[in-house]
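User: Fold both of these, please.

Assistant: Here is the first one.
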Amino acid sequence: MANEQLTALKEMTICRALSTAEVEAIAAVVESREVAAGGDLFREGEPGDGLFLVVAGEIGVIKRGPAGEHLLARLGSGGMLGEMSLVTAEPRSATGRALVGTRTLFLPAARFRSLLEANSIAAHKMVAAIADVLARRLATMNGIVLQLAEKPAAANAERSPLKTQDLAALHRTMQVWSF
């Protein structure tokens, strides 16, 4: 099983900059988890306890809203979710649900923090990779906010137009939004 975890980790973007020895250090602390189609890896509002890496299958990132659930993203093999739980103690901001039978690797936050405290180069490189992912997600959200701001009021006649303060609030929210 450990060899399968090592092979899977080597294929993950978050581990791309790690040496073989560094990947082995991470493989020693991850856990394999499988979830059947329709099952939840985690639920919105639960404590964030670790990062999930999708080895095989597909996870839907789902957010509750006033009108029900909304699918925010689909993450397949190589996908990463729950990364913020490695650096903050915030609750989960969305639900991770298997759209098909899915196999993941789970990196518990407590074990990752122990690696950081031990000054693990692998853990530090992973933090840099997480920062890169978060920066790209923030850039995407900035683009969405800009598109919303530029929609003419006429196209939204049935809705009230977005106000600058609404966009500022949305932008602040998106800065901390993660799966």
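And the second sequence with its predicted structure:
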Amino acid sequence: MEQYYSGMAKDKKAKILETKLLIYECEGTESEIKEWFKTINIAGVPLNNQELLNAVYSGPFVTLGKEEFSNSQNSNIQKWSAYIKGSANRQEFLECALDWVSKGNIGDYMSRHRFDKNINELKKYFDSVLDWVSSIFTDVESEMRGLEWGRLYEEHHKKAYNPAKVLAEVQKLYADPYVKNRKGVFEYILGGSIDTKLLDVRVFDEATKKSVYAAQTAKVKTKSKSNCPLCAIGHDANKSKIWSFSEMDADHVAAWSKGGATASKNCQMLCKTHNRAKGNR
């Protein structure tokens, strides 16, 4: 039966006001205090890591940081939410800003700046990252939310990008039926469109691999050549070796990144050693 204090009977108000509270005063190093907070926070709604850090490193810096990044009325939250997962109320925008500027060492950064009277560096770095992202990727996609933009900024912000070409590449990859991981599209492009593992490109299914293996093996058995095309043109002991199916991997004849489709006509079976050596060539 929830009630407002103002509407309660006088005797109930008095009971609340006269209730004695047991207070523990915590003394010790900041590390010890942090452990205290973790211990007494077991019950109820647990504090997350940033809320714990805010308590441990309380001071003018945290106060100013919360005013900027933990204010649900801040008009910038809509823009931030396009790139960052979280809630202002649970300190997740503040945590993200601190993570970016500190390169992941949030506690150390908060300790060093605990008594600062401004958050200029924090705000400037945070804005720099988001301005950089929005200048390269002019269309905002839902998969951009929650990516490691701070790390990507550090790795790539000194490179030059053509936003129009980047947009065309994003649209091309989004339309490609073989790309299974759209969240990896942005890092893939920033890295020069090299690391296809980021895209989780669809691989050949088992039926296709077995069919191609059978055809390759039948074709070479009477010719004393290896059923791995690259071993067959080599000069070592494997030149005539017939590999078992489990010893081989499916490979794109024409690399997917160079327009090769994940289709049986573009599939060949290579021994595992040659397939790994071939890479994306």
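The chain has a mean pLDDT of 90.
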